[in-house]
Fold:
Amino acid sequence: MEIRPMDGKHLDAYVRVFLEAFAAPPWNEPWTAETARQRLAQFLQPAHAFGLELREDGEVIAFLLGRNEAYYDGPRFFIEEFCCARRGGGYGSKLLGALETELVRQGVVRAYLMTIRGDDTEGYYNRRGYVTDPENIWMYKVF
Structure:
């Protein structure tokens, strides 16, 4: 198993993993290859973007992608996408741990993410030390 920085040259592999991960429960989201490619490509372009990929036997099986943002108390990292094509093998935990080690090395003071409620998602992060924020909420408006 190998964890290394993401590279835009592997966008096709990331699209495949993304589609496999988010078509499955608990998300069951109707992404297409085109819409997944657009989303991932936008996060791979900015100078403040950072991601890690996890490979097994030369194949990308998981990745984690986000962005750094300056803030008054130090840099923050926003996890935008985290997906594994293979669940239950500890791949996600290893990848998340590698990201956290790298963020500490970079001087990042806090990491944020958005997920759906439930033990498979919210519970996964809670068990790894992430806290469900009781004060902040996500809001949106459909146009």
User: Anything to note?
Assistant: Helices lie at 11-22, 33-44, 91-106, 119-126.
